[in-house]
Amino acid sequence: MTNPRLLDDLLLSRAAIERAAHLRSDGEWQRSRAQDPASLVVWVRGNETAIAPGGGDSSLILTSVADLDDRSDLSFLGVDAEDRAYFALHSPTPEHPGLPPDAQWSSLRSVGSTLSDLHAGLTVTAVALDNWRSRTRWCSVCGGALTVGNAGWSLRCDADNVDHFPRTDPAVIVLVRDDDDRALLGRHVNWPVGRMSTFAGFVEAGESAEAAVRRELEEETGVVIGPNPDDVLYLGSQPWPFPCSLMLGYHAWTSQTEITVDGEEIAEAHWFSRAELLRACESRDVTLPPAVSISRKLIERWFGEPLPGQW
Ligand SMILES: [Zn+2]
Known about the structure:
This protein is α+β, with helices and mostly antiparallel strands. It has three domains: about 20-135, Alpha-Beta Complex (Nucleoside Triphosphate Pyrophosphohydrolase); about 135-165, no CATH class; about 170-305, Nucleoside Triphosphate Pyrophosphohydrolase. About 20% of the residues lie in helices and about 25% in strands. The protein is built from six helices and 15 strands. The strands form three sheets. Strands 1, 2, 3, 4, 5 and 6 form a six-stranded mixed β-sheet that branches. Strands 10, 11, 12, 13, 14 and 15 form a six-stranded mixed β-sheet that branches. A three-stranded antiparallel β-sheet has the order 7-8-9, with no helix packed on it. The longest helix has 18 residues, at about 115-135. It is globular. The site of zinc ion (ZN) has 8 residues, from loops.
């Protein structure tokens, strides 16, 4: 049985693809599947993938690897339940002849909530790998050239005998609750009035995730989370590959409700009862993050059901 406290409906954590990491280093298997007409290609360019035109739910454009003239820049994404292999084709030009002319390039942020489980899993991994590749041009040790290895999952420097792997930066995101079970939401200085969210920040070098939750909250709002270990509760994680974050979601509790925003990152913060937040969302005085974000799931987990409106 799954832990009922975990956020099991995170839209970018759906994984209907078997990553089959042990097959990345199997050169013969990789060469064979990269020629197999049954193997499919995800077209990825930074945060965007090629999406089939049409309304309603979104669907990736998946083409056969056999139709590609050049298979030198593929990353292996995994296999589905029918043992079909999937690859990402990195940063093709929009005019690539292998792509249907009516393909739409769409950001994972905008289509992530309407993709199927399989397509969401493929897209998150393809975007993460493409963003890593485009930001890792040279060896970070010696500045030398890198060669792609492990079916797209490593970049090797032969001079240093070092493999560089896709990096994932942990970030914490927290919804804080007080003794009246109100929730603390805030507005970033760059956001329009009314746009509100939970609080987030990167885990620093040498820091635990729980310490980062406490530090970020106090820095940004002056609110000090309670001293007990149970005052910080981990709920679940979601990849956020823009370019390489992993969001660790928490609820936290405090008895100290006085707010002093830093003014640098957070412009304002307020405590909301459930009735107050529902009213504010219905009147559009407050808009919350979209369904694809872990922030909205943390808010709705506290609220108890879906809330209206989004950015
Ligand atoms: Zn090097």
